[in-house]
Amino acid sequence: MKYVSFLGDAGPGVGVVLGDHVFPVPHGYAVSSDGAPMGLLELIQRGTPGSVPCSTTPLPLADVRLLAPIPRPPRNVICVGQNYHQHSLEFDASGYNSTPSNGVPDRPVVFTKAPSSVIGPGEVIPLHDNLTTELDYEAELGVIIGKGGRGIPAEEALSHVWGYTIINDVTARDVQRDHRQWFLGKSLDGACPMGPFAVTADEVDLTDLLVETRINGELRQSAKTADLIFDVPTLIATISAGMTLEPGDVIATGTPAGVGIGFDPPRFLSAGDTVEVSITGLGTLINTVGGPPQTGEGEPA
User: Which residues form a coiled coil (predicted)?
Assistant: First the structure.
């Protein structure tokens, strides 16, 4: 199933996408204990199966404002760095890696992005030009945890996955380098576009997904998930080894080569740029660049 979080005439909601239409999940089904409409996060947390009852009156997909599938994650987005061979090499060669590295890590490099960094498709990525002049893009496959746990074995890891989405791990490279850690440079407000869809795991073949980024129509990144240094089961096993993963947690699995710092000279994002991130079966996440940080509105509870 392909889910969206959206803002329609009746307010925020969750729906299933079929073709060019959204079939809303009725509020009579998707309600919390206090009667408030539930977002996709709550449906995942309560163990919603792959299919749920939907309205028989669809909404044109073009007529609703799509939000990030999980507009405000309850915890930081868990991210993995240097997880494609060629990107790991380009990152080291760029001079922006302030941590010791021999090119390709022997263990997953894990960091996080603040929940306040998440924005939806169509929203503007803020320039934050008072803090950075080196804003970069990173196309990533996002893993949505459905069944939590600690010490999850790699061979059981995929049974803990609810589904997948697209993430653009926007990064202030100068902030990342100057502070000698990644959190601040990764967690600027609006620096985690997510969406447009959340697709259940049964519809996604992890072995052969094409991950691509286009800036103003120009192809910059293109790689298959088969090129991951550490695959999704390994990442889940590593992250959960001593930390409990919870339903609704999101893991960004790393970006391919072709980010802005991989060029000579670097090609950073500028005001007015259009960033398109596509992954097989997960759609295309489109955002423009420029303007101040935006305040979210109308997000599902």
Answer: none
- Whether 190 contacts 224, CB under 8 Å: no
Q: Binning pLDDT at 50, 70 and 90, where does residue 189 land? A: very high
Domain definitions of the chain by residue range: 2-67, 77-289
Q: Do 117 and 135 form a contact (C-beta atoms < 8 A)?
A: no
- What pTM was computed for the model? 0.91
- The tokens for 153 are 């074995």
Give phi and psi for 291, each to the nearest 5: 95, 170
The Cα–Cα gap between 120 and 206 comes to 23
Secondary structure class of 240 (helix, strand, coil): helix
What's the CA gap between 248 and 220, in Å, rounded? 30
Alpha carbons 112 and 229: distance in angstroms, whole number = 19
Please state, in angstroms and rounded to a whole number, the distance separating the CA atoms of residues 289 and 123.
9
Instruction: Using only the alpha carbons of the chain, give its radius of gyration.
Output: 18
Mean pLDDT value across residues 29-37: 52
List pLDDT tens digits, range 59-83.
999 999 999 999 999 999 999 998 9
- Which CATH number applies to 77-289? 3.90.850.10
What are the distances in angstroms from CA 199 to CA 50, 162, 202, 207?
9, 8, 8, 16
